[in-house]
Amino acid sequence: MKKWEAELDDLRVKRRDQILEAAKEIFLEKDIASITMAHIAAHAGVTRVTLYNYFSSIHEIVFEIQIKIINEITGYSQTEDVSAKTGADQLALMINDWLQLYREHPDHLRFIAQFDHFYRDSFPSEELRERYKKSMESRGSEWIAAIEKGMKDGSVLRTFDPVLLGSMISHTLTSMVLRMATRGHLIQKQFGLDPEQILTYLTNFLSQFVRAKPDPSIFELERTAE
What we know:
Layout: H1 3-29, H2 37-44, H3 48-54, H4 58-77, H5 87-104, H6 106-118, H7 126-136, H8 141-153, H9 162-191, H10 195-209, H11 217-225
Helix pairs in contact: 1-2, 1-4, 4-6, 4-7, 5-8, 5-9, 5-10, 6-9, 8-9, 9-10
């Protein structure tokens, strides 16, 4: 590849990322249903012709952002940690990663919540459904692997079904973290409860729930810390 071709490819990648970031910003400011391609082009500082050179529709942009976010989130729970001596320890670290995600990337979570609501009934096309399905295929295996490791080393109760338990933990965390990211400030105002403390309680509960030898004192430590 010639130098000018490489530079052109690099420019296209940067412009594409710029458009996606601008689109994500405007989606979070308003709502997916109220945004048009013209809005995105204006916010990204490009012409509509340029925008259509990269993306053919709003749906394509939304799915591209969603898949990018999902890949980043998946990276959180796939990081190996040498401090995890048992399967239960590894599972606890993975669960705690969701609390870290809430702290560091609340906008990611708010976008996912919008995506789930906007496409709650159907996908806009079979092509996008297949792309999204493919992006989700690797998710869940790391939860099952940690649970099965824990069952083998005796740190996780063997009475569980690894697939069902992994799915339950994943969906429970996703649901609660998304809710706290989108409505946590209202929950705090109405009930006087800190959203992060609620999530900390949940992550501790799930971490201890699976263990063959749970440690209930961890909740006493949380109360003391408050």
